[in-house]
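User: I'm new to structure prediction. If I give you an amino acid sequence, what do you actually give back? Let's try with this one:
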Amino acid sequence: VVFAQGLVFNDRLFAWMEDRYGSEARLRVEALQQLIHDNADAGERAQLERVNDFFNQVHYDSDYALWDRKDYWATPFEVLGINSADCEDYALSKYFTLLTLGVPEERLRITYVKAIVLGEAHMVLAYYETPDAEPLIMDNLTDDIKPATQRKDLVPVYSFNGADLWLAVNRVQGKKVGGSDRIKLWQTFQRRLNKQMGG
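Assistant: Good question. You get back a string of structure tokens that encode the predicted 3D arrangement of the chain. For your 199 residues, that looks like this:
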């Protein structure tokens, strides 16, 4: 299966959004499409900030409350449909929006962390300007995008993108341990996203 490298907007998607979630949801997806259009030529740092701000406006709630299950990874369209998300949903939505804006996949990693303050597992999006750079962390808990070493409240566990999977060595480095196709939720998520976009 070839998975999507970015978000595709089309009439079928808009019709599905309106039919399933209502006209306000459709407007939220149109706003995302506009954000991508308006920032296509912006620098990557500006793109990170605008995408982070856009999705951080979405209400937070748990998977149990939103989907009546322990772990459900919602697509960006489902997030905008119900205008609610949990930490994975924010990270995944930002990841796919930045891919759509042209940020190379190898610079982005969806990262599982332990949030010390929350005392629980949490997910953020890490951006690596170069392969060896200290990543910048995009997090729904704060609108500030900070370098990983300034986020002492987060302990990385593992990270992945469309191709690879890494186990965290420390806040900056990871050790590649195989392909992200080992993550079942990631596979299911991408199939659902493709279907929603008419794939």
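You can read the tokens as a compact description of the fold. Here is one thing that stands out. The longest helix spans residues 23-38.
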